[in-house]
């Protein structure tokens, strides 16, 4: 069985998405099932992803913005085309573009037995940026989770010591978010996230 | 719950000679004595750098590689003409954004002083920001900008740290007088284009893009 | 009893001499370590950098004297003094040569030939720890306090084997006076060995050296000022000449200990198998004995430097373990064996 | 008595003052033995550390944010500043990630050059680590014997492309220069020099009882815990796990070289030291073999794959890692198809190792804290980014 099949077999319905990029396998799982999924991946014979390499947080807002703009443009073009060709009628309903959850949290796993790598991804919405901690499975997740909290503002439920890691306590914003300004002084006052 | 940590207990096992301390210490003393006598003798030898680590810096200097990356200079060609055409490729390549180039036309009647049709009206390198990576040198199509052999970049004030065109040309003259001009960078041999679709796809629009930039 | 004038001259002379050597030691330490480590060391001030100690002294004198705001001012200023005073006065009972005959007057090359010279040295060595503790406590810095505590524990632990080894030496020579011990080391022992303490007390010598290194806070026992652990230990907060006193006192201590080692174990001013007084005039003999004594001392001073740049540092508990579990039992064994042999042979 | 005062913001390790049984000691960020700007707040009972909390971020420069606003090639000099003891490894790790994202295979000669340079910087890194470990335990002299050889290695880097420390070696798609002509002769001398320095360090330290007392059994760690904490590199191998990406997941022709993976047993300071010492010897072996292969290559063999001048990888995300001197150094890259990376995440090996630091030094003494820290080879530049 290929790795994809084995993962599908292991995680069953939890696989929301499974894709490959330049040989790296990414699997997306539901946010509230992350701990169970990682435990399954760790314990399943034949997979045994027993080593947590890193936890990565990504802010996708700029990407989504770009996509939405492109789609709006496409829609507008279509509309224009439709108007040009003189067709009128059904398009009255405004198309609501659905914005996908803003953040990704990616758990990079490694199997020490087979040296296969797997990235497990969860989507985290901006309104409720919270994921269960995986420090209970791997203590390696301790600081990476704190770092993600520090830089992106994603909270990890159940983390034993969720404090800022790099920035000082009381720093008012999350610098790796895409809307964090690049220049200027006092940027932390500029943006005001409520923690 | 976090997993508790079990610390392994390690038993120390020593041989007799290790146990009595002195044997190994005497061996160590022998070694340091060897170094001591060698260096004392070496320090009386004439000439610079007789002791392995030390260069008596302001008097003796370590010979540097001919391709050393130090302070920038703007090169002149054999006829003494300025090579820089002010295209600004260096400024675009700079990761620290420390180069500012203004392009201009050569002043009336002085065209023979410049190698290109256009010149850099002003050229500024902020050495306080520069990280001496050498990307500007690599980006320069005319071979006009080099990172020279001078590594004494300290100044008393911030002002002189921002190198203007005069300073860069002076650096060149200094390097030329000392015979430390940098050899022209040899381009590395590049593999023939692969037949891979990814590579090809990436190549064609880029070729155009860089071409269009040049036209600007 | 010698007259006062000669004593004053002797005091002034030996004081200047010790200070000179201590200053020079800072240079030797730096250049010597540099040479062992393939470096050059300070070589700019004067020929071979010999004036470096002077430059250092000027620097230390002209530095601003900073007292931490929350330090205990009195203790803070008392610390260096308490450290330096015993160090400077300990040399009084150690000889620096045999004797000089001037105008028929015999001048003993020793400031004071006290008949309990040993006790004087041990007592003053014990006093030095107050300088460190008081300075460490007065600085109101956690590292300083740690350094002070370390020095207390270390010095008190190592006073014991130090004292016991000295006792064994006293038993061998049958006197407490350092001059008499020196005089007793002339001639040969067992027919072929020089009559030196080291051949009579080989184990005692090693134990004495170990304890001396610990007393002097030198590597591998430099825990009170271990720079990679507790910054600078008891003198973390000190600067300017107060720091100078600490550093200086340390080198003076070294000189005293090296001279003591020579006196006890290496035949003081005696050359092996050779009696200088037979073929040298009274004045030249005095000078020669002084030089021989100094050269031997210089070797042990150099050994201090040499060992420092060769070995790593102990850990606090390991130093204690070595002191209590190895040195004290061994020195006791040494004492008993010595007593036994003396009892059997006399 | 006036109580000594400790002003530790953000420290919640019990009492700030010297009342009660414990003292809170603040080691760093400016401390002679703290590498770079690390800070450990330790609660101690006498000299024994009861509890400790490392604080990091004093050298945080926002490297990841910087990367999002520079083009792909422009980020290479920034990677120099991660682990500045072995900058080439960082460069190559990043380039490897971008090349993976673009699907570019670099020419063999470039691979060999990279292997040689990386192994050289691995030796340099280990030399610094061992030297500093000696200094922190009080043996100053081996440091100089090692550092002299490192200078010679830097000389090769200088002749390679003009810089000694922050080399900025390689570009995306290959190398920016060929090995210098002086390499062969220099390497022949350097090899002996490195071996001699290692031999001397070995003589001064390894069997010295003071050294053994200070290192054996200090901050020992079991293999299981080490894996759980995400240890990689020498620190993991010291625990007895023979894991090395060069063998397990070979890249750049490492599968063609014959070398061993030295492992320890207890995962203590001594084993880390021994693993590093032995690894240098293995690196020498690798360089010899790689150079033999390199010499067979024709002079004008390509050093760079055909890549566009402006790098624009297709949209996607990858993670690529290689074995840096400290362990697995990985780069997670996300591209949105533009000329700037959308997200760069560095996976520094120290970061994972350092989070176990409180556990490593629990119950050890203050002096061991320093020894443990140096043996882990924590580089603040890499840790804080």
Features:
heterotetramer, B: 216 residues, alpha+beta, Alpha-Beta Plaits, two-stranded antiparallel ribbon, disordered C terminus, D: 385 residues, Cytochrome-c3 Hydrogenase, chain B, three-stranded antiparallel beta sheet, 6 strands, disordered N terminus
Structure notes:
The complex is a heterotetramer of chains A (195), B (216), C (346) and D (385). With 195 residues, chain A is an alpha/beta fold. Helix content of chain A is 30%, strand content 21%. Chain A has helices at residues 3-11, 34-43, 61-84, 142-152, 187-190, and strands spanning 17-21, 24-28, 51-59, 103-110, 117-124, 130-132, 155-157. Chain B is an alpha+beta fold and 216 residues long. Among the domains of chain B are: 14-47; 72-177, Alpha-Beta Plaits (2-Layer Sandwich). Chain B has 6 helices and 5 strands; from the N terminus they run H-H-E-H-E-E-H-E-E-H-H. In chain B, strands 2-3-5 form a 3-stranded antiparallel β-sheet. Chain B is elongated and about 90 Å long. Chain B starts with 15 loop residues before the first helix and ends with a helix. By secondary structure, chain C is mainly alpha-helical. Chain C has helices spanning 4-36, 52-62, 73-89, 117-138, 142-173, 178-183, 197-200, 202-215, 227-230, 240-265, 276-279, 282-308, 316-345, and strands at 99-102, 105-108, 188-189, 193-194. Chain C has a two-stranded antiparallel sheet. Chain C has a two-stranded antiparallel sheet with strand order 3-4. The longest helix of chain C is centred in the N-terminal third of the chain and has 33 residues, at 4-36. The mean pLDDT of chain C is 83. Chain D has one domain (63-379): Cytochrome-c3 Hydrogenase, chain B. At the B-D interface, helix 1, helix 2 and helix 6 of B face helix 2, helix 5, helix 6 and helix 7 of D.
What is the fold's blueprint, element by element?
The complex is a heterotetramer of chains A (195), B (216), C (346) and D (385).
Chain A: H1 3-11, E1 17-21, E2 24-28, H2 34-43, E3 51-59, H3 61-84, E4 103-110, E5 117-124, E6 130-132, H4 142-152, E7 155-157, H5 187-190
Parallel strand pairs in A: 2-5, 6-7
Antiparallel strand pairs in A: 1-2, 3-4, 4-5
Chain B: H1 16-19, H2 22-44, E1 72-74, H3 89-93, E2 99-104, E3 119-126, H4 135-139, E4 145-147, E5 162-163, H5 165-177, H6 197-215
Antiparallel strand pairs in B: 1-4, 2-3, 3-5
Chain C: H1 4-36, H2 52-62, H3 73-89, E1 99-102, E2 105-108, H4 117-138, H5 142-173, H6 178-183, E3 188-189, E4 193-194, H7 197-200, H8 202-215, H9 227-230, H10 240-265, H11 276-279, H12 282-308, H13 316-345
Antiparallel strand pairs in C: 1-2, 3-4
Helix pairs in contact in C: 1-10, 1-12, 2-10, 3-4, 3-10, 4-5, 5-8, 5-13, 8-13, 10-12
